[in-house]
Design brief:
single chain, Serine Threonine Protein Phosphatase 5, Tetratricopeptide repeat
């Protein structure tokens, strides 16, 4: 397996229960060996005393490497089934052991594994630092176009995407693909995860046609290699469903999301938090169809799964809260919507910072609510902040920019500035037309708000 390539292993975890069975077998074997181990350690200790510690001096590096490998392997098993909280202390201990040993290769693996784990816990700053350290070490250990570097760059790209640094993410992934293309043909199944990640970045940046092309190319390879019932294939179905929701292609989105959900339930169980993204997609589809009770049910399921019994403090929880705001607005429950929107804004600021596009989305939704309450000055301030963030993160023709322009148009219309509102509507419509996306449901909703 490639150094730094464990992300694909985690993506392709076949059976949560098999993983737990393996862990149980390891623990039982350790219990059986405990008495023997105690005797061996006692003998070793006596030998060290006699030898004055010289034997330990010669062997300590090797012992620490083996300890690191064992800890890292167990951490990977937990990561494969999404148990990141259980994996974290093991991966941290593995890195500590590897740092004191003499094997740079093992240290490299531990850095990248822990970076990947922190990414999935939402600890993006720490993840970025660890991945960068691992990448620098790989560049010293391997030749410039070794596939190991490509896999690490792929993880780093996902970290940058989580931070809202989409240009950096795109640059990372383009570099990774250039490395892979030196040793792999385009139709090689090892290229599929890189196509998927490129599709995800392009979708966020508003390049929907290009994103769909990459998804379809990846799917052709994945279905041939793994089949439609594989958990990684299911995850890609879920990502494609998200793209189709943004485009208003709800029938296609629902079919893909349901197909993904069936596979994920078999692998992880019916209520595992790794299903949260698919539940959220189904919630958005229900809201678009004005099935608000069903939509809220899916969203509540997400919120219960991501951090049961705790305050939501992560990105997926923030996304779920923003979707719940949309449901409440559609139902006319503006007071509840404002309360949830304020909560979402706090969550996203804590998880992602003030300069993230999701934080800007929360500001925009809150501005819409303020307009409904006649709080025009506060709404204007939020719109300006949101637009400023989005024009830095994206370009001026991104669909998220268009969303803020719709809100600003509504505000100007309420203030009686009809000509200004018309200019803003024209600019927002131009963004939509340039993307050549089916936005009919969105258009109708915005027209109702302006009338």
């Amino acid at each position: 397996m490639y150094c730094g390539g464990m992300q694909h292993q985690f993506d392709c975890a076949d059976n949560r229960y098999l993983v737990r069975k393996v862990v149980g077998r390891i623990l039982r074997r350790q219990e059986q060996m405990r008495w023997t181990t105690r005797n061996i350690l006692a003998a070793v200790f006596c030998g060290l005393v006699v030898l004055g510690g010289n034997a330990f001096g010669k062997q300590s590096g090797r012992i620490k490497v083996h300890s690191s490998i064992t800890l890292r392997s167990m951490a990977r098993l937990y990561m494969a089934c999404g148990d990141y909280d259980k994996a974290a202390p093991l991966a941290e201990r593995a890195l500590s052991a590897a740092s004191q040993a003499s094997s740079e290769g093992e240290l490299c693996l531990c850095l990248i594994d822990l970076g990947y784990l922190y990414k999935n816990q939402g600890r993006l700053g720490e993840a970025e630092q660890l991945c960068q350290q691992g990448l620098e070490l790989q560049q010293e250990l391997y030749y410039a176009y070794h596939p190991y570097l490509a896999y690490t760059l792929r993880i780093l790209a996902s970290v940058h995407q989580g931070q809202g640094c989409y240009e950096e993410a795109l640059a990372d992934l383009e570099q990774a693909m250039a490395i892979m293309e030196r040793s792999h043909l385009p139709e090689d199944r090892a290229m599929a995860p890189f196509y998927v990640d490129m599709a995800r970045i392009l979708a966020v940046r508003g390049c929907f046609g290009e994103a769909e092309s990459y998804y379809l190319e990846a799917m052709a390879l994945l279905e041939q290699s793994y089949g439609p019932e594989h958990v990684y294939t299911a995850g890609v179905f879920g990502s494609m469903a998200q793209l189709y929701v943004v485009q208003g292609r709800y029938v296609e989105a629902e079919a893909l999301a349901n197909q993904a959900l069936e596979v994920q339930k078999k692998v992880y169980g019916a209520n595992h938090r790794l299903l949260a993204s698919t539940w959220l997609t189904l919630g958005k589809i229900c809201r678009a169809r004005e099935q608000f009770g069903l939509a809220e049910g899916w969203i509540r399921k997400v919120l219960c799964a991501v951090e049961p019994g705790k305050n939501v403090k992560n990105q997926i929880g923030g996304r779920a809260l923003l979707e719940l705001v949309e449901v409440y607005i559609a139902e006319g429950r503006y007071s509840a919507a404002e309360q949830v929107c304020n909560r979402a804004l706090v969550v996203l600021r804590e998880a992602l910072g003030d300069g993230h596009d999701l934080t800007a989305a929360a500001m925009n939704k809150l501005a819409r609510l303020y307009i409904l309450q006649g709080r025009y000055s506060a709404a204007a301030e939020l719109c300006e902040k949101a637009l400023g963030i989005l024009e830095v993160v994206f370009d001026e023709n991104h669909p998220s920019v268009g969303e803020v322009l719709w809100t600003m148009a509504q505000l100007e219309n309420e203030l009686g500035h009809v000509s200004v509102a018309e200019e803003l509507v024209e600019r927002a419509a131009s963004i939509r037309a340039n993307l050549q996306v089916a936005y009919a449901p969105v258009t109708k909703a915005r027209e109702r708000e302006l009338n």
